[in-house]
Design a protein that fits this description.
Length: 451
Amino acid sequence: MNSLPSEKLAEFIGEHTYGLWRPQKTWKKPVYIVDAEGVYLYDSTGKKYLDFSSQLMCSNLGHKNKLLINAIIEQAQKLQYISPMFACEIRAKATESLLKVLPENLKKIFYSTSGSEANETALRIVRLYNSSSGKYKVISRYSSYHGATAAANTLTGDWRRWFAEHVNTVPGVVYAPDAYCYRCPFNLKYPECGVQCVEYIDYIAKNEGNVAAVIVEPVVGTNGVLIPPKEYLPRLREIADENSIFLIVDEVMSGWGRTGKMFAVEHWNVKPDILTTAKGCTGAYMPLGITATNSRIMEYFEENMFVHGHTYTAHPITLAPLPVAIEEYKRLINSGHIQKVSSHLANRLNELWNNHKCIGDIRGLGLFWAVEIVKNRRTKKPFNTRMDKASMKPLMVDKISNELMVKGVYLYGVVSHFIVAPPLIITEKQIDEGIDALDEALKIADKEVEE
Ligand SMILES: Cc1ncc(COP(=O)(O)O)c(C=O)c1O
C-alpha cells in the first residue's frame, strides 16, 4: 500500500473513510499532507501551505513543537495506559497545572477525549445535579457549535444540528438569539439596544420553566467569531444567579491563548460554574477534552453518584502534553508576543476592509478573527446563508479558500465568513504572507458584488 503514489492513497482515503459534514461525492481526493512544521504544512508534491486557521482552530502551538512531542514520547515510554480507576503521576501533574490557570472557582475536572464529550459531560452533570428538582432544560444559542455527539449536537444552534435532529436529539434544549451586533437579531444598535440579546435569555429562563443551565461560547467560534458587547457576559452571570441556573462556558475554541488570554472569559472577569474545553489544550497533539466544575458541583457528588466515565478518561498519553502546553501558552501570553502580532493582524485586516467591497465586517480578539463577506455592503446581503450550506449549494467562501490553497494558504471558510486564527507562534512576516494571498483571492468575490 505504501508503495502507491500519494495521489492513489488520497483517492483510497476518499473512497474508504468518511469526509466530514459533506456529501461524500465532494470528498474524492483530499490534499495529502506529508509533513508540518511551525506554521506550515507540506503536501506530497513538496508544496508549502501557511496554516492560517491552525487546522480546525486547534493547532495553536503550531506543528512539531519538540517539547510537546517529547512529553508524549516520555509518557509513552513510562506508562501508556492505566485504568481511570487508578491514580498516576501525569494525572496529578496535568491537573495541578490546569487548576493554576482555570478560573479559580473551578475545582474538579473530568477528562475525556474531545470537545463534544466535554459538553456531553457538562450536560450530564447539570442534569444529575438537578435530579431531585426536575430542572433539565438548557438554553443555548443559534449561532453556536458544541459538538457532534447526541447532547452536544442538540446544544448546537447552527445547521450542523438540523440534519441530525431526527437521529439523536436529546429533549430540553431551547435556543436564544445571538449576540451578533453586525446582524442584530432584534435589528437594534449597540449601546441603545440595552443588550436585548442577553435580556432575552432572562426572559427565556423565567418563562420556560425547569431551566437548569445556559451554555455559551464566550467568543463564538466557527459561527463567526462573535464578540459580545462588554456587558453581555457579566449580565449573563447575574441572570444565571438570579434564576438559579448554571452558567456553562464552552472554551473549546476560544480558550488557550486564542483571544490573547488563557480563557476568553477572563476578558470580562466572569466566573463560570462549568468550563468545557479541548482542542488547543494539548495544542491538538493529543485528543483531550476537559470539563471543569465549581465547588458546589464538586460537593454535590460527594454523596451522590457520579454516573459517568469512559475507558479513556484521563488516558495518560492524552494528558502528557497538557502541562507543557500550558507553559507554552503562558510564555506566549506573558511575553507580549500574542498582543504584538495580533495588533499587526488587526491592522492588516482593516487594510483589507478598505481594499475590498466584498468585505462586510471584520471582527476579532487576539489571534481570533472573522472576515465576513457580503454581496452588498449597504444592505449586508450575504453571499451565502446557512440554508445554502445545508442544501449543498456552492459557496463563495469555498471558491476563495480553494484559490488560497493554490496560492499556498490554508484558510477555513464557513458559510459566508473566514476564520483567521493562525498558530499563536506566527510572526508578523508570516501574517503578511497570509494577508497578501487573501488580498488577491478576495478579488473573486469583489467581481460579484452588487453595486
Ligand atoms: C466551541 C466548540 N465546542 C465544541 C466543539 C466540539 O469539539 P470536538 O470536535 O473536539 O468534539 C467544537 C469543535 O469545533 C467547538 O468549536
